[in-house]
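Worked example 3. Consider a protein that binds flavin mononucleotide.
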Amino acid sequence: MSNRTLYLFASAAPPLFDVARVIEDAQADGWDVCLGLTPTAARWLAESLDGLAVLTGNPVRWEYGLPGQPDLWPPADAILVAPATFNTVNAWALGLTGTFVVGVAAEGIGKGIPTVAVPCVNAAYVRHPQFDRSIETLRGAGVTVLYGEGGFVPNQPNQPGQGDPAVYPWRVALDAVGHPGAHV
Ligand SMILES: Cc1cc2nc3c(=O)[nH]c(=O)nc-3n(C[C@H](O)[C@H](O)[C@H](O)COP(=O)(O)O)c2cc1C
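Given these inputs, the predicted complex is written out as structure tokens:
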């Protein structure tokens, strides 16, 4: 297995249900994958959490550890935040680190860890004035945000959950974080 570690951070939007296949694709690219979830995403995947830990070979995490507990994961060489909900994008941009994954992704900016984000939002959410500001803030902080042409294009239906997860650009996202296996 590669010694290059990818933190895959997923929040609660329908492409989340492809995460096992995405982990396998990332491993085929040469990554050791650590899966982090928002608490809501962990609730959606409750039945699969044990299997996902076996698949990655690392504990699946959705909560901060307790003071004094050792870090359960190797350090990250890259972070992929996908699918990134409206909530998670805005929390991250605003520095509201109430969830474990947003906290680690926020620190990742400060540590200069190469980070890619792929929103998953509908056309109504993106009309909220904060959304464009959040994308601009994250890009300005060095995050590669795959949003718009060539990345994620907002779901046309105005209700969450109505978009087609099959068209979510997972492969584009993995290509953007790179293929460490190609260099070893
Ligand atoms: C079936 C379903 C589909 C959803 N799809 C989306 C979505 O595509 N994008 C989004 O931003 N929120 C979506 N939501 C709402 C989020 O799950 C909700 O805002 C949640 O609080 C996000 O929390 P998190 O960012 O901590 O995961 C959906 C909710 C449900 C029940």
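Take a moment to read the result before moving on. Residues 11-14, 38, 40-41, 85-88, 99, 120-121, 125, 160-161, 163 surround flavin mononucleotide (CB under 6 Å). Residues 17 and 45 are 8 Å apart (CA to CA).
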